[in-house]
Amino acid sequence: MEVILLERIAKLGQMGETVKVRDGFARNFLLPQGKALRANAANKARFEAERATLEARNLERKSEAQKVADVLGGKSFIVVRSAGETGQLYGSVAARDVADILAAEGFNVGRNQVDLNNPIKAIGLHEVVLHLHSEVSITINLNVARSADEAERQAKGETLTSADAIYGIDEDALRPEDFFDPNADRDEEEEA
Which end of the chain has fewer CB atoms at under 10 Å, N or C? Predict the structure, then answer.
């Protein structure tokens, strides 16, 4: 299906371009969201008549997103979650959780603007990309820890999931021979 884009869409095209997309993508996303119109003579004339209004609205949205990006860009947020001794979270931190954390700090960001390919499932420092506008993207840092004290230690660069941090063991001194005997299987075979 051919559509006329009403705004810039990443990996698809600029405002006003006529592009060919799959029917389902157009019917289920572009048309209902108001991001495109079907490409026919009537809609082309309608787009040309409303072009100045659409460009002004797009510029306004971009400037608002840029203001938020200037304040939010590079900030770090602490997320406290329950986790096991190895640093594996009992749950996960998903895009919805990131949006809720930002809302608690006073930033209005929707979960569809959070670019998190996979949920965060381990404690540590994680970078998350936010797409505030089709032309404005920023990165924030999430410090996922078991407590605020742990988050502070993590922010200073301390590793909390290594064997040394958890058990007081020097990982460099560990050798496989310390845990199993490589000759144990041979002894059993010789006895048989």
Answer: C
Task: Report d(CA 36, CA 15) in Å as an integer.
Answer: 9
pLDDT in tens, 4-41: 998 888 889 888 899 999 999 999 999 999 899 999 99
Residue-level pLDDT at 7: 86
Q: What is the CATH number of the domain that holds 165?
A: 3.10.430.100
- Angle at alpha carbon of residue 119, lines to 77 and 162, rounded to 5°: 70
* Rounded Cα–Cα distance for residues 184 and 182 (Å): 6
Alpha helices in the chain (DSSP H): 23-25, 41-72, 95-104, 148-155, 163-167, 184-191
Residue for token digits 């971009």?
62
Say yes or no: 33 and 115 in one domain: no
Burial label, 24 (beta-carbon count in 10 A; 0-12, 13-18, 19+): exposed
